[in-house]
Design goal:
Helix content: under 10%
Strand content: 25-35%
Number of domains: 1
CATH topology: Umud Fragment, subunit A
Number of strands: 13
CATH class: Mainly Beta
CATH superfamily: Umud Fragment, subunit A
Structural class: mainly beta
CATH architecture: Ribbon
């Protein structure tokens, strides 16, 4: 609701109180138009997801050895991001040509091609206009934009206002 009241049965928003910002935890409809599109262990068609916005339209996003970079700069302090698995997939595991990565990502093919590799080494990609790159805080186990592409703004339903899991982080999101 904070990102705009949607007219029922349409994707048109009115009365926008605030724009989406990097770091917001957003609720959105999974960005697939095909119920036969299997991602994250099954069809996610029509399901709501909740993730943190890490990339804005026009941002260049890359993950190197598990570290997030936005527009070439290390993504500063991310106290909420958790990396639990000590194993890292080395760069060079994937077989792509320069420029292919952006095409694979925008066409939602990466998760099907390099699912293990892209967890730790992703991109670089440029987030398309009107879309957002989202990642889960549990980066090692999160099925997120690294695998299935950016989230169009019209699929974002709202902003999370309270965290209840895990109990140690219960409260209002930072």
């Amino acid at each position: 609701f904070i990102y705009g009241f949607r007219i029922p049965y349409t994707k048109k928003k009115i009365v926008k109180f605030r724009e989406v910002k990097r770091g917001d935890i957003v609720v959105f409809q999974f960005p697939s138009l095909d119920p036969r599109d299997f991602q994250c262990g099954g069809s996610q068609y029509g399901k709501d997801f909740i993730k943190r916005v890490v990339g804005m339209p026009g941002d260049k996003i890359e993950v190197k050895e598990g570290q997030l970079y936005v527009n070439g700069a290390k993504a500063g302090d991310e106290p909420y991001a958790q990396y639990l698995d000590q194993f890292r997939y080395p760069r060079g595991t994937e077989k792509t040509q320069p420029g292919d990565y952006q095409v694979y990502w925008e066409n939602r093919l990466l998760g099907k091609m390099f699912s293990e590799y892209i967890r730790d080494n992703f991109g670089p990609v440029v987030v398309p206009g009107g879309q957002y790159m989202v990642m889960g805080d549990n980066r090692d186990k999160s099925c997120d934009s690294r695998y299935w592409g950016a989230v169009p703004e019209d699929l974002i339903k709202g902003k999370a206002w309270f965290t209840y899991w895990p109990p140690s982080r219960m409260g209002f999101p930072k």
